[in-house]
Amino acid sequence: MAKVYVSGIIDAPVDKVWAYARDYNGHGEWHPLIAKSDVEDGKPSDQVGCVRNFTTTAGGHLRERLLSFSDLDRSFTYNILVSPMPIENYVATFAVKPITEGNKTFVEWYATFDVGPEDEARIRQQVGQDTFAAGIVALEKAVKAR
């Protein structure tokens, strides 16, 4: 089983970051890899079980189900149902925590998944750096622009 863990610091208060990032379907507003995203069946984006259906700027199509959501813990977990990547059993968590010194936000984004050894390095890069790390940088820009 492959694991990817990325963390970062956003120079903004945790409540401001979470208010923006808590929208499970909001990644289309700030993530540079997302072209278009919708929640299926008109469900709210914070309802456990909702499915976001989206396309990437590279033309890929994904469907992801929200498995858990907590405003108290400022986190959500989701799994991939459909992906162009050669992966299985993908489960990811996004979480933010306060950094009390300096009133900043600590962001964690991590995933586990099964992938063949021939694809592992490429997929770890794609998930870790191209998706998670780039997303944290883009999220900070979006929060600060708000």
From TrEMBL:
InterPro entries: Polyketide_cyclase/dehydratase, START-like_dom_sf. It holds the Pfam family Polyketide_cyc2. It comes from the Bacteria. This is Polyketide cyclase/dehydrase/lipid transport protein. It comes from Chelatococcus asaccharovorans.
